[in-house]
Amino acid sequence: MNVITRFQESFLQRISEPLLGDREISLWIRREDLIHPEISGNKWWKLSGNLQEILDKSSSPTLLTFGGAYSNHLYATASACAELGIPCIGIVRGEIPEPRNATLTFASDKGMELVSVSRSEYRNNAQISEKYQRIIPNLYVVPEGGTNEAAVLSCTAIVDDRMKEMNYVCVPAGTGGTMAGIIGGMENHGVVLGFSALKGDFLSEEVNGLLKKAFPERDLKHWRMITDYHHGGYARISDELIAFIQSFYGAHGILLDPVYTGKMMFGIYDMIRRDLFPAGSSICAIHTGGLQGWNGIRERYGIDPTSF
């Protein structure tokens, strides 16, 4: 599992404040954001599973993957491949901005070859993959976001015995891979709540599909998707969300990202205020990292998440 370096073990951090005491709720954050400075959170887990599988198959692989201009996945993949000496190609959705933003500059500096394709071309990832597989030997394709069966199985290891004692485990959801892994790891202990970062109610179907592939013999029922806290859709933000992230950082010294974990924590607090968690409940929230995503928010909106 430790094919890429892990700098720190994950740990549970207790959150204390009057709202939680008033509602008799115990809230913990699992600090997956701290396990690696560049390959943080769920990206470390997803890439560990994929890269182990790739290296088991070939001693000289090349990795091809996909992402947007501010992609956490491209950023983390570039770092992981540089650490392991694996050549990698990043297919970027849309034009590569010039000058390059901080995310793509980092990926390029780490040795990732960046190739821009139009948004219409990008929709046919299979065709792009087939094109490169014809010309590059030992090419391995990792999907956008890193979600596949190898990633799901790797993410089961996020769950430990303390988490299985919690009434609820909450996780942000973008492709559903991390959530599916946690559902598998929880083994129907407690309820897993996924907080969708995307507008719409289609991720439940994605998670169901991943569960059937990764755990075909298991009946994993104790989960549901929460779709009310996307703040306008993927990578969209609101003044209310930013104010919450800044306030949470000021109170607890924990920085949340604006695309995934910030929206999940906003949703958890709103549900607590609305008494949607029974008194006496214990909740574990997974911090999935992704803090480099603030690069895009700073560049586009000039917002400092630690200023409040």
From TrEMBL:
The active site is at residue 71. The keyword Signal does not apply. The modification N6-(pyridoxal phosphate)lysine is found at residue 43. Its cofactor is pyridoxal 5'-phosphate. Keywords: Pyridoxal phosphate. The keyword Lipid biosynthesis does not apply. GO terms for molecular function: D-cysteine desulfhydrase activity. Belongs to the ACC deaminase/D-cysteine desulfhydrase family. This is Pyridoxal-phosphate dependent enzyme. It comes from Fulvivirga sedimenti. The lineage of its organism: Bacteria, Pseudomonadati, Bacteroidota, Cytophagia, Cytophagales.
